[in-house]
Amino acid sequence: MKRDFIDLWNLDPDEAWYLVKRTKEIKEKRNSLKGLLNNKTVALLFTKPSTRTRVSFEVAVYELGGNSIFLMENHLQLIRGEDVKDTARALSRYVDCVVIRTHSHSWLEEFARWATVPVINGLTEKSHPCQILSDVFTLYERFKDNIKNIKIAYVGDGNNICNTWIVAAGLFGLNLFVGTPEELAPDSFYLQAGLDLCNFTGGNIYLTVNPLEAVKDADVIYTDVWFSMGENRKEEKLAILKDFQVNTRLLSKAKNEAVVMHCLPAKKGEEITEDIFEKFADFIFLQAENRLHTQKALLEFLFIQQ
Ligand code: CP
Ligand code: NVA
């Protein structure tokens, strides 16, 4: 049976922790898995721009001895209206795995239903599981087993990154405070999934519309852009979010030794000020680097399961 990775709940908590710990081993011996993807081809089908996801997957596949093919939607017959299910069935005859970045989550789910090879979500409007799996690894590297005791605060737009953090808190048993304006609350389906998982793992998810409450005594402050790919900029949204900017004032409410995280790309001056971004740049780019190591662990896991 093929395994897909479309949302974090495709893993059970034991598998999720296994991947985090396996990533640590893989990172320590960067070239130890050469040969794992020998004679395997991974296709990357993207309809949206990407720097980190594309490059980290391509390099991961290369370093594992495999081959990757980058496919933009407008170079495929999809753009002329070929059915998703036909594209999925055709690509499954050539390649061993498909990483997809697209707007519509239901489009991705439809593709995965018809593909006979593993499908990995490289970001949709609903979720970005590769990013948050990797971010949990970055926090595990820093906080070790204390990761379950720290306070993680997500502040800003209740978007795909926020939805995925909520599921991660449930899956890994973490303490997550989510501060978003009422109008920009996270997706209720993802919230319920996160809360359901908390019953098994002991995680905690608190929602607040007060950014100061979200970051109070936090160990980690996480933010993301206020306008996601494909979304039009609106002055009204900027105004609603202005108190959620990660700046000196907000950071002063967190613990003295708190760290700031950002999945990137950042829009400095909106969700985060340039000075705070630069203060935590090493940690933010460590997040970016760890995408490479985590995705190797993920590819190994999905291929071994087959
Ligand atoms: N964080 C992230 O997924 O970056 P890209 O959009 O550059 O892939
Ligand atoms: N919320 C952002 C995340 C980018 C990695 C977007 O969807 O554009």
What can you see in these coordinates?
The protein is α/β, with parallel strands linked by helices and 306 residues long. Helices cover 44% and strands 14% of the residues. A 5-stranded parallel β-sheet has the order 7-6-5-8-9. It has a 4-stranded parallel β-sheet with strand order 2-1-3-4, sandwiched between helices. Strand 5, helix 6 and strand 6 (175-179) form a beta-alpha-beta unit. The structure holds phosphoric acid mono(formamide)ester (CP) and norvaline (NVA). Norvaline is lined by residues 123, 128, 159-161, 224-225, 228-229, 263. The site of norvaline has 10 residues, from helix 6.
Spatial shape: globular
Number of domains: 2
CATH topology term of the largest domain: Rossmann fold
Helix segment tally: 12
Provide a quick synopsis of the model:
This protein is an alpha/beta fold and 306 residues long. It is 44% helix and 14% strand.
SSE inventory with pairings:
Elements: H1 13-28, E1 41-46, H2 52-63, E2 67-72, H3 84-92, E3 97-101, H4 105-114, E4 119-121, H5 129-143, E5 151-155, H6 160-172, E6 175-179, H7 188-201, E7 204-208, H8 211-215, E8 220-223, H9 235-241, H10 248-251, E9 259-262, H11 274-279, H12 281-305
Parallel strand pairs: 1-2, 1-3, 3-4, 5-6, 5-8, 6-7, 8-9
Helix pairs in contact: 1-5, 1-12, 2-12, 3-4, 5-6, 5-12, 6-7
Phosphoric acid mono(formamide)ester is lined by residues 50-53, 123, 131, 263-265.
List keywords for this structure.
9 strands; Rossmann fold; binds phosphoric acid mono(formamide)ester; alpha/beta; globular; 306 residues; binds norvaline; 2 domains
